[in-house]
Amino acid sequence: MKKDYYMPPEWATHKSTLLAWPDNRETWPGERLNRAEHVFADILEALTPHEHVDVLVANEQAQQAAAALIQNRDVDWNKVRLIRMPVNDVWIRDYGPISVREKTDDGSRVVFLNWEYNAWGGKYPPYDSDNAIPENIGKLLDYPVVDTKVILEGGSIDVNGAGCVLTTESVLLNPNRNPDMNREQIEDVLRTYLGVQKVIWLKNGLKGDDTDGHIDDLARFVSEKEVFVAVSDDPSDPNYAVLKENWEILSEATDVHGRPFEIVEVPLPNTKIKGTTVDGSDHVPASYMNFYIANKCVLVPVYDERYDDKVLQLFQSVFPDRYIKGIDCRDLVWGQGSIHCVTQQVTL
To answer: How, if at all, do strands 219-221 and 226-231 pair?
Structure first.
């Protein structure tokens, strides 16, 4: 019997947020690990007034590090739970469970979708512990787990809750994910498991984005009809042409009723860094699009004094009933991800 699933948009009410505490010394060499930990503490401090947070800790050392750092912060311990569970890295948006609602005879229930995860095309082994997280956390939290048998990362999709999903060709059509599937087959999978009717395909991602171009650095729904999109006004920026092409696609896109979206342009911060990241890139995927909409608050990564205040004001105008919190993510994005990448909501 065919199941009927629906993925709520991020602004729908959450039961909790999932995080995984930083512990991977290859991602965070030397003192960079401690700097990343402080950003995670900032995130917890901002989230706990508004919702519960389950923090996965890979081992005893990670658990002690998390507890020691958090205890000196203004964190509501009644809303934080440290869970010992093997993890390879922090990017739980991509390997964690995607919670959807499944229609039942007497209403609906929340289930966890277990997508396959191969670390963005096998780039960073080992990833077996990360790939097992949906099943493990589903058992622990007592959620039914549905195996899709398809490789997909949470950062590669964004839904508006009204039948549309945003994604990119550079990720979902990349042969390093599902080489035996074509566009039509992937669209069928998205319709089946996310409950969408329309797939809006953007093209490519940011320079330095080792995911091959996740949508959560490029464009995000902030309501059923409104889309934030990253733009650059500097033709010499290596991301200028990519963002312009994606903007043009969105400007022509329509919702399931054929209505154009309201597009809000958000400037791209500086993505060039001094030196290189661990994989040799001199750019990082710094983007204000990597925000996280939580219960009663929105966490916005900030990176660039030229734009930070303007962007935070923009978010406040779009989310007048939510507290807008800017979090300095320059140390986090050095690891090639930001706030959205390290969070995963559990829908209510």
So the answer is: antiparallel
Q: Measure the CA–CA gap between 306 and 284, rounded to whole angstroms.
A: 18
Domain, as residue range, for 209: 5-347
Which backbone phi and psi does 331 adopt, to 5 degrees?
Answer: -75, -35
Q: Write out pLDDT tens, residues 147-204.
A: 999 999 999 999 999 999 999 999 999 999 999 999 999 999 999 999 999 999 999 9
CA distance 116 to 114: 7
**How many whole angstroms separate alpha carbon 186 and alpha carbon 183?**
5
Q: Does residue 93 surpass a pLDDT of 90?
A: yes
CB contact at 8 A, 111 and 87: no
User: E strand or H helix at 345, and its extent?
Assistant: strand 344-347
Closest CA to 289 of 227, 208, 223, 201: 227
CA 188/CA 177 separation, integer angstroms: 16
Q: What is the mean pLDDT of residues 107-119?
A: 97
Instruction: Tally Cβ neighbours within 10 Å of residue 12.
Output: 14
Query: Would you call 297 a catalytic residue per the annotation?
Result: no
Q: What is the spatial distance between Cα 305 and Cα 23, in angstroms, rounded to a whole number?
A: 29
Q: What is the end-to-end Cα distance of the chain in Å, rounded?
A: 25
Q: How far is CA 104 from CA 97, 189, 199, 223, 275, in A?
A: 20, 20, 25, 27, 54
DSSP state of 275: S
- Reply yes or no on whether the pLDDT at 231 is more than 90: yes
User: How many folded domains does the chain comprise?
Assistant: 1
Q: Distance between alpha carbon 130 and the CA centroid of its chain, in Å?
A: 15
**CATH code of the domain in which 60 resides:** 3.75.10.10
Helix (H) or strand (E) holding 128: helix 128-131
Quote the pLDDT of residue 103: 94
The number of helices, as runs of H, and strands, as runs of E, in the chain is: 11, 17
Catalytic residue, chosen from 164, 297, 329, 341, is: 341
Q: How far apart are CA 202 and CA 213, in angstroms?
A: 10
User: Does an H or E element contain 20, and which?
Assistant: strand 14-20
Question: DSSP character for 49?
Answer: T
Q: Could you tell me the pTM of the whole model?
A: 0.97
Is the Cβ–Cβ distance between 82 and 63 less than 8 Å? yes
